[in-house]
Amino acid sequence: MHALSHTIARPRRSRATLLALALLLALPVASAADAVTDWNAIASGPVVGPRFGGPYQQFRAMAIVQIAVHDALNSIDRRYDPYSAVSPVPAGASANAAVAAAARDTLLGLLASTPDGEAKTAAIDLVNTSYANALAAIPNGTAKTQGIAAGSAASAAILLARTNDGSSTPHTPAYSAAPGPGVYQPTPAPIDPGPVQFSGWSATKTFVVPSATYFRVAPAEIFDLAGARYASEYNQVKHIGDARVRGTALNSQQSDIARFWAGGGLDWNANARLILEGFHLDMWGNARALALMTVSIADATINNAESKYWYAFWRPVTAIRWANDGNPQTQSDPAWRPFIQTPPYPDYPCNSTSATGGATTALRLALGTNNAPFTRTVNAPPLAMPEPIPTAPGKAITRTYASLTHAAGEVARSRVYAGIHFYEGCKAGLDQGDKAARYIYAHAFRPAD
């Protein structure tokens, strides 16, 4: 058993913990699932994933988990180059035991530094219970023991590599730019999301891409506030992203698209599991695809954070409420609100599309095709609307995508429909993620010689 198992106390399970376990363990398991995708679902799911923090932090955690799983399998049978320097183990070692140990040890190691509380206890209990169930299904013997050792070694290697990687102070230094035309400011009341976040995330060590500045996006045409491009994008988001417009057309295509992606569609681990079902890869293939995807997302979004705070361009809600930006083609509206809550960091480039560009390009390269259809349903939460428009009730929204580029393009449009981004920043994010994924595919997790 990995030493980390002794460093985290296991408090008595509360009623909330038991309920969380019951809900997670009762979820249906797809027929094409395997240990790799099962553990991906646990790590990125609602009990464990949010414990790591905001989106940037969850991207980092998932990359670490998937690296450990990938390397554990490839220490048994080296089909792809491991990320870390792991020693080979006998070919007869249990792959299922290796995956379980790699995921469990890595998750416990990552959870050790998260805030204590009932939610953390529930996450630890789910991980340990899932691990016990996985091992119980594997016959005792040398193969099982060797598989556990392989997983623990892979976990230890990546956890050591990510120790002191710069991620521990994500909001330092604090953002403090003075207000001015084009300058990002915290979202104004009455929709204040709290302090500005991830101003220091670019200090986080990248996984494969050489640095946080390597794929800094080029300056945007919309930075010229007096220009026609800025006026066009300003007026576009002002109209279609207005909560008063979307709130009175809740069943429209644009409203559904905005709510689908904001309400859970951006979970690319869940999307990838649906996609991978249709390709019937073995555990090694699934592990490589998920490693490429999660590392691409993590590195793309480290570069994203650097670009955001390098340019510090304002969000639509600030721009549209600004009294006079100097452009005669824009008309201020101090009462304007976006359809979806604006995240607490700058506009350009869009983080969601950087992650999406990384995810979709990585999957396209790993699978050798753009034709990776999937259908997903998300339960979009209720949305408060400006008075006198009633609160938008929760809604189950199902979307179907014929290809990876189809999904990626819709993500870019969704952020404009939501009222939280200018479109140029959405396109820049897709390009940034695409470049990061292509670099990673060329330099990591390559087929073994």
Distance from N terminus to C terminus (CA atoms, Å) equals: 32 Å
Element-by-element helix/strand order = HHHHHHHHHHHHHEEHH
CATH architecture of the largest domain: Orthogonal Bundle
Number of helices: 15
Spans of at least 5 consecutive residues with low confidence:
1-13, 19-31
Provide a compact summary of the structure.
This protein is mainly alpha-helical and 449 residues long.
How would you portray this structure in words?
There is one protein chain. With 449 residues, the protein is mainly alpha-helical. The chain has two domains: 3-161, Vanadium-containing Chloroperoxidase, domain 1 (Up-down Bundle), CATH 1.20.144; 221-443, Vanadium-containing Chloroperoxidase, domain 2, CATH 1.10.606.20. Helix content is 50%, strand content 3%. The chain contains 15 helices and two strands. A two-stranded antiparallel sheet has the order 1-2. Helix 1 crosses helix 5 (118-136), helix 2 (35-44) runs parallel beside helix 11 and helix 4 (95-111) packs parallel to helix 6. The longest helix has 29 residues, at 283-311. The two termini are 32 Å apart. Residues 1-13 and 19-31 have low confidence and may be disordered.
Task: Looking at this protein, list some descriptive labels.
single chain, disordered N terminus, mainly alpha, 50% helix, 15 helices, 449 residues, two-stranded antiparallel ribbon, Vanadium-containing Chloroperoxidase, domain 1, Vanadium-containing Chloroperoxidase, domain 2, 2 domains, 2 strands
